[in-house]
Specification:
Blueprint (H helix, E strand, L loop, with lengths): L12 H13 L10 E8 L3 E3 L18 H17 L3 E8 L4 E7 L17 E2 L7 H4 L16 H11 L8 H11 L5 H9 L11 H7 L2 E2 L6 E2 L9 H4 L21 E6 L5 E5 L10 E5 L8 E4 L2 H7 L17 E4 L7 H4 L6 E4 L21 E4 L18 E4 L1 H9 L9 E4 L7 H14 L7 E7 L3
Parallel strand pairs: 12-13, 13-14, 14-15, 15-16
Antiparallel strand pairs: 1-2, 1-3, 3-4, 4-17, 5-16, 6-8, 7-8, 8-9, 9-10, 10-11
Helix pairs in contact: 1-2, 4-6, 4-9, 11-12
């Protein structure tokens, strides 16, 4: 927990004064007003401030000294964050023409994720520890799945011993220990691999030996892990708009994670390599998949078996098979996608995002009322004909609306009580403090911890 304001430099106006002077003195995009309002967010290792940085001098790249004043001002706040045990802090300040300043420090609530760089709050987690539906999804059973004919543990082991004649292999006791730790038996191909090499870094003459021998960077046996959904965290605002879809011709299930994905390596770029024991309808038991670090769901088929990966060392990743013609579970209504809510409505719809269309129409929600799987609604400001229609969408677990639409629901006591999370959608230019107050009002319906706001006053001079 952060230190109390009286005990921490984080809540000393002098800590923030250099940052506030920089923002006040920066060129304003709008005509000068009697009171200047500035805002931003500073984290321990990053910051977001509306400052125009000078371009680098001709012939060289940008240097820290080009923005030394900004760097030093931010570093002062970051030191106070570290001392207070706080990850980041958003702020809003009203600065008068005489330098008198009222500073609002917007703290952290355990029920709110950080905003995207600016001072506005992120997702509001209304139910403690709740995660979006795709993160709760378990693999569909595929009882007829069999290993690919190319799977051959004996061939795999011979090939690896030829390539790694000096390798130190894992003992049977070490293999048993890994199985006990993971809670699942290791497939025979994976056991064959680690019988040849335990993949400890100190065992390699050259770290590249691992990649050359096995087609990936191997993890040591004691670093194997199950790529369950919890190993792929994502912010509610994005995760709630994902869907798990596995077409009937897919080799890999479109999951966030699976207790049957045993990660044993990396492609050298942050993408994990795993044995798949829960394949898709057209996949094989023990196939090799790659879990992309930039993706939130699904994985790509890399090889039909570990033997195939090692013996043939494939260079190209094959897509996981998504050629089916299933109706989209995620639909966007805007000028480039679906033309209206009627077009988006179908029984398998899970996520509906309504954006701005060219003619400025507002949309009714009657076409999606009663859909059995609709769980997420995101609507840009001024796109709903009647926000109170949301009360009829009884299956929602995530709702993202503009401030005016939230105000309608709150005033009518019509906020859906089945929500697990919510978000207030705003543009960066909107004053943050009213949005924080609105977020706290929503949190209060679930008795969740509010976003704390600390007010400091001070002088910046003219």
């Amino acid at each position: 927990m952060p230190a109390q304001p009286a005990q921490s430099a984080l809540y000393d106006f002098a800590t923030w004064a250099p940052v506030l002077r920089l923002l006040r003195d920066a060129p304003q995009e709008r005509p000068t007003a009697p009171v200047v309002q500035v805002s931003g967010r500073i984290a321990r290792f990053s910051w977001s401030l509306r400052l125009r940085r000078p371009g680098p001098r001709p012939g060289r790249a940008a240097q820290v000294e080009d923005v030394q004043e900004e760097h030093d001002a931010v570093a002062r706040v970051q030191a106070a964050l570290a001392e207070a045990g706080t990850d980041d802090m958003a702020f809003v300040a009203e600065i008068g023409p005489d330098g008198r300043t009222v500073l609002h420090l917007i703290g952290q609530s355990p029920a709110v994720t950080p905003g995207l760089g600016g001072p506005h709050p992120g997702a509001l987690v209304l139910v403690e520890d709740a995660v979006p539906e795709p993160w709760r999804r378990l693999p569909d059973p595929v009882p007829d799945a069999r290993p690919h004919p190319a799977a051959d543990p004996a061939l795999l082991e011979r090939t690896l011993r030829e390539r790694l004649p000096e390798a130190v292999g894992a003992t049977e006791a070490e293999l048993a220990g890994a199985e006990a730790r993971l809670g699942v038996p290791l497939p025979e191909e994976l056991r064959a691999l680690y019988r040849v090499t335990r993949a400890h870094w100190e065992d390699w003459d050259d770290p590249e030996d691992s990649y050359a021998a096995a087609g990936c960077e191997l993890f040591p046996l004691d670093e194997l892990y199950l790529a369950e959904a919890a190993t792929r965290p994502a912010d509610w605002r994005f995760a709630a708009k994902d869907a798990v879809v596995t077409p009937p011709d897919a080799a890999v299930q479109g999951l966030v994670g699976s207790p049957g994905w045993i990660v044993f390596g990396d492609n050298g770029g942050g993408d994990r390599i795993a044995v798949d024991l829960t394949p898709g309808p057209c996949g094989h038991l023990g196939q090799i998949i790659m879990i992309g670090h930039e993706d939130r769901t699904g994985a790509d088929l890399l090889a039909d078996s570990l033997t195939d990966l090692v013996v043939n060392l494939p260079e190209d990743v094959r897509r996981s098979g998504a050629a089916g013609q299933l109706p989209p579970a995620v639909t966007y209504v805007n000028h480039r996608s679906a033309a209206g809510v009627e077009e988006a409505a179908h029984p398998d719809l899970e996520v509906l995002s309504i954006g701005v269309v060219e003619d400025g129409r507002r949309f009714g929600l009657a076409p999606v009322t009663g859909l059995p799987r609709l769980r997420t609604l995101s609507a840009c400001p001024d796109t709903l004909a009647d926000p109170l229609e949301i009360a009829k969408l009884t299956g929602l677990e995530f709702l993202e609306l503009g401030p005016a639409d939230w105000r309608v629901l709150l005033d009518a006591s019509a906020v859906p009580r089945g929500l697990a999370a919510a978000a207030v959608q705003v543009h960066d230019s909107r004053p943050p403090l009213p949005v924080v107050a609105l977020a706290n009002e929503i949190l209060g319906l679930w008795n969740r911890p509010p976003v704390p706001v600390t007010v400091l006053e001070g002088e910046l001079g003219r």
